[in-house]
Amino acid sequence: MINKHTHRPAALLAATLLAIGTAVTTSAAAQAASCPSGQFCAWTDSNFGGQRTNWSGDDHDWEDPIQDNDSSWANHGISGPGIKDHVQVYENPGLVGIGTVCLDPGQEIATPSGWANDSGDSHTWKMDC
After folding, report:
1. Same structural domain, 49 and 78
2. Cα–Cα distance, 73 to 71 (Å, whole number)
C-alpha cells in the first residue's frame, strides 16, 4: 500500500521550484528597456537605469544630462520600406567622429562594450548600420 503523505514533500518541492522559476523569468523580462514606441532612448546608467532621454528624430548636439553620459540604449523606432529605422550614435556633436553604437530596429544594449560608454554626443536615423 502506498502512503499518500510521502508524496507531499515532492509535490511541495516541485511547486516551490515552479514558483521560483516564474519569479526569475519575470525579473529577466523586467530588464527590457522602457522606451516609447517610435523613439530612440539613451540612459545615463547601464541596464536602462538612471536618467532617460528619448528622441523621435535626429539630434546633432546632445545636452545634459545625457551628453557624454550614455551607458545603455534602445531603438524602438518604426520600421517599414524606405524608413530610416537604424540609429547611429556619434562621439562628437554634429554627427562627426567615430560612431560609438549603431542599433538595428528593436535592438537594446543594456551594457556598453569597449569605449562606447559615456561617449555619445549626437545621433542620426539611418537606413542601415
Report:
1. yes
2. 7
- Full domain range(s) for residue 20: 1-30
Other Cβ atoms less than 10 A from the Cβ of 84: the count is 15
Q: How many angstroms from the chain centroid is the CA of residue 107?
A: 7
**What is the spatial distance between Cα 37 and Cα 128, in angstroms, rounded to a whole number?**
19
Whether 18 shows a pLDDT value over 70: the answer reads no
Length of the chain: 129
pTM above 0.85, yes or no: no
Statement to judge: residues 75 and 116 lie in one domain: yes
Number of C-beta neighbours around residue 96 at 10 A: 11
pLDDT at position 48 is 97
Q: pLDDT grade, residue 67 (50/70/90)?
A: very high
In the structure grid, which three cell numbers stand for residue 70, read together?
550614455
Is the pLDDT score of 9 beyond 70?
no
Q: How many domains, in total, are found in the chain?
A: 2
Residues 115, 56 share a domain: yes
